[in-house]
TrEMBL record:
<feature type="transmembrane region" description="Helical">
    <location>
        <begin position="6"/>
        <end position="24"/>
    </location>
</feature>
<feature type="transmembrane region" description="Helical">
    <location>
        <begin position="44"/>
        <end position="62"/>
    </location>
</feature>
<keyword id="KW-1133">Transmembrane helix</keyword>
<protein>
    <submittedName>
        <fullName>Putative oxidoreductase</fullName>
    </submittedName>
</protein>
<dbReference type="GO" id="GO:0016020">
    <property type="term" value="C:membrane"/>
</dbReference>
<keyword id="KW-0812">Transmembrane</keyword>
<feature type="transmembrane region" description="Helical">
    <location>
        <begin position="68"/>
        <end position="87"/>
    </location>
</feature>
<keyword id="KW-0472">Membrane</keyword>
<dbReference type="Pfam" id="PF07681">
    <property type="entry name" value="DoxX"/>
</dbReference>
<dbReference type="InterPro" id="IPR032808">
    <property type="entry name" value="DoxX"/>
</dbReference>
<feature type="transmembrane region" description="Helical">
    <location>
        <begin position="107"/>
        <end position="125"/>
    </location>
</feature>
Length: 140
């Protein structure tokens, strides 16, 4: 079971680690896209989302504070879905379909991250190692 969880964590985290790195490596291009989508403080938004993706992915991959990493990812993914992939505003059929696919991908990944957060923060999966939830930061 532990090997499966390790492989699953790494596979899930990989897309976020690479995305976080891309946010920094292609900062100007991503800032231009954020400005096109009318994001206020576009460069700051790109930096913060890149940091959240990178930290969230690394936390999940290495098994340290997986709940916090999953929460960072879920927040960023939901905001990105609503702000950047608002398919309901598109009039071109192809653009609308592409934005809907990206929106659905982000929402599905956010759902998976929230499931991971809940399982760890509330003690259902302790195989991941230390978590913020075990420190009672998320004790509801």
């Amino acid at each position: 079971m532990n090997a499966v969880l390790l492989v699953g964590r790494i596979l899930f985290a990989f897309i976020f680690i690479t995305s976080g790195i891309t946010h920094f490596a292609k900062l100007e291009a991503m800032t231009g896209y954020a400005k096109y989508k009318k994001l206020p403080a576009a460069k700051f938004g790109v930096l913060i989302s890149g940091l959240f993706f990178l930290l969230g992915g690394v936390y999940i991959a290495i098994g340290l504070w997986v709940d916090l990493g999953a929460l960072l990812l879920a927040i960023t993914l939901i905001l990105a879905a609503v702000i950047f992939h608002n398919f309901w505003k598109e009039t071109d059929a192809t653009a609308k379909q592409n934005e809907m696919i990206a929106f659905n991908k982000n929402i599905a990944l956010a759902g998976a991250a929230l499931i991971l957060f809940a399982l760890i923060a509330f003690g259902s999966l302790t195989e991941f190692g230390p978590s913020v939830g075990s420190l009672n930061f998320f004790d509801f």
